[in-house]
Amino acid sequence: MVTFTRRRLAAVALVATAALLGATACGGGDDEAAAGGPVTLTVDVFGQFGYEELYKEYMASHPDVKIVERGTGSNLDEYSPKLTQWLAAGKGAGDIVAIEEGLLVEYKANPQNFVNLLDHGAADLKGNFLDWKWNQGLTADGKQLIGLGTDVGGMAMCYRKDLFAKAGLPTDREAVSKLWPTWADYIRVGEQFKAKNTGASFLDAATNTFNTILLQTAGNTSGYSYYDTSDKLVVDSNPAVRQAYDTTMDIIDSGLSGRYGSWSEEWVSAFKQSKFATIACPAWMTGVIEGNAGAGAKGRWDIAQVPGNGGNWGGSFLAVPKQGKHQAEAIELAKFLTSAKGQIGAFKAKGPLPSSPQALADPAIVDSTNAYFSAAPVGKIFAEGAKGLKPVYMGPKNQAVRTEVENAVRTVELGKRSPEQGWTDAVENAKKAAAK
Amino acid sequence: MAVQLDARPPVAPAPGTTRPSRGARLSRFDTRYSPYLYIAPFFLLFGVFGIYPLAYTFWVSLHDWDLLGAEHPFVGFDNYSQLLADPDFWHSVVNTLGIFVIATIPQLLLALWLANLLNRQLRARTTWRMAVLIPNVTSTAAVAIVFAVLFGRDFGMINWLLDHVGVDAVDWKANRLASWVAISTMVDWRWTGYNALIFLAAMQAIPRDLYESAAIDGAGRARQFWSITVPLLKPTIIFAVIISTIGGLQLFTEPRLFNSGTNAIRGGPLRESQTVTMYMFENAFAPHYNFGYGSAIAWLLFALIAVVAAVNVLLLRRLGGGARKEEPR
């Protein structure tokens, strides 16, 4: 009888403990902060943000904070649907999430998912950002600040010195910049390059170049691309779009493109195998090139001025989702990472160009060189133009529309459509996508 | 002993009459309902993870459901009528069916042939039988990535080999038919061995004496195969076809990973190898985030699978009809 009772008691206790354990295990994640233990902050990024050293520094000065970064090196195409799902589900997103400029418009349409940073003293930071970068982070009514700017995408042209030498072209970056004041000149140089049969194409993919030309043309003229500032789709009536399309068609006609689908595995292989000589190069692309071409190509790349005049492609923001459990800590960290100091640190690590005028004027940026790119003075090349960057307005379905137009460019590049058919497709499919 | 002293006194015995009747009731309850209890866990799980999502998806498909939006207005069957008139959807249906046909027919024939070989007296028989399953236990993603590299336009091994025999390089990703073939190869690589083992198991259930008497009657190996093995395997073949139909029409990982880079979900600039599931994903998630439309696609896919599976079964019934009348199962 004794043993029976004891055994039964033990069983009851076991079940009770298991149930309790189960309950605490479920609740564990939520109660961390209340318990006063260290707070773990998750930062969701894509590509290369260059924050590793900054995290270490921050954790050293904030012993109660632990930082975990997810998604480093991932493709934006993989990252953004995940982020959207997390936001829709109300669960899963990091305490801080990175948002790319072109996608920010869609997230801004539903600002209830994010903490209004204006409520947390962000208004004082306005002077730390280029005006247009600050404004991009605001909702249409200007009442909510969704994201603090990280970088801007000042434009240059990266090129392979060794391939240029092989084709008998100048290799010095000043001389190369002088070769192509306009895109027509760029095509002319490309034809010279092609005639020398180096075994490499002149450029990687027409789609990347198209986007570069479009953002540059739009920035220099209307200030918008596929949508006008009243969010009306103007893909077929904005001369900037047609102009960029026509220039890209000239590039394709001259057979300069290696036709590697951008961001595909073949594109990455083409970097490694030295299959193209130039690539349109927003500041953040330098980190991508280094990652794709690998250590073996160190010193073979260099950076020249972009044909045409300036332009901005990409750049990101850090936002704090409302579903986060540690919003106060996350806001502090986001402020630190987007401060002038944080932006300088990121630039040194992976090359994203600061959006803070203080950082852009800092000698640490202005005098910086990039060893991978033959010690090119990246600070001078990118930072000088950054203050004069003209932003391009992006409408609600910018990403979907851009996808359609770039796909049309790609079909022409692959010889599946004539330039005229391609344009018809681009306009039709863009309208369809915008209506979805 | 002290414990026993402190223990509660025994409860007064229950009146004698209720005991047997309660026992009888229990046992009746037991025989009548416990079978349902035993199978209940499956149906409970199926309800939670099968029926509920299905019904919820249908509910979502009746709304204009922006994934991030706060409001989801009810639109009735608008998503469906829009979808039926959507050429891109039908394009993806054709792709899916094309890949399904190119993948499944050779796969099942090959599996049948493999099973037939494995059913003979072979040295190290178990090793061979295990070996055909190896492709199935490798991760789909790994297989897809390796094949995507093999089928690369500029740096792929297949084109390199083709070049050696004097065939021009094929742009596997930008040519619709070529991309179907490439994806079908992946599917076959993965599933042929699996189906072969299923066929093999069924073959071993065929009585040996049938073959012996056929041999006495002068039937050769081929005749035995077509007149005994295949007809008797019919239920198994139907099973394999239905499973392949479900898997084939839901094909996602292989074509998705075959296309890499920007907008891989489109399956190429002209949607060369975009399957229905990829189209669903494109609409429900990036770049459109139109959850209602995506859910409508999911339901039409469900209907499509049901139709194709039914057609397959009918065709197969007809096919082996003359061989031997079977007992209904």
Automatic annotation (TrEMBL), chain A:
Disordered: annotated span: 416-436
Gene3D superfamilies membership: Periplasmic binding protein-like II
Entry-linked InterPro entries: Bact_solute-bd_prot1, SBP
UniProt cross-references to SUPFAM superfamilies, sorted A to Z: Periplasmic binding protein-like II (SSF53850)
Taxonomic superkingdom: Bacteria
UniProt cross-references to PROSITE patterns, sorted A to Z: PROKAR_LIPOPROTEIN
A Pfam family reported for this protein in Swiss-Prot or TrEMBL: SBP_bac_8
Keywords recorded for this protein, A-Z: Signal
Keyword flag Mitochondrion: no
Signal peptide annotation: 1-25
Protein's UniProt name: Cellobiose-binding protein
From TrEMBL, chain B:
Disordered, as annotated region: 1-23
Residue ranges crossing the lipid bilayer per the database entry: 36-59, 97-118, 130-151, 232-252, 296-316
GO cellular component: plasma membrane
Compartment(s): Cell membrane
The UniProt record lists the keyword Amino-acid biosynthesis: no
ABC transmembrane type-1 domain segment(s): 93-312
Species whose genome carries this gene: Micromonospora chaiyaphumensis
Gene Ontology biological process terms, A to Z: transmembrane transport
Keywords: Cell membrane, Membrane, Transmembrane, Transmembrane helix, Transport
Family statement drawn from the similarity comment of this UniProt entry: Belongs to the binding-protein-dependent transport system permease family.
Record's protein name: Cellobiose ABC transporter membrane protein
Domain of life from the UniProt record: Bacteria
Keyword check for Transport: yes
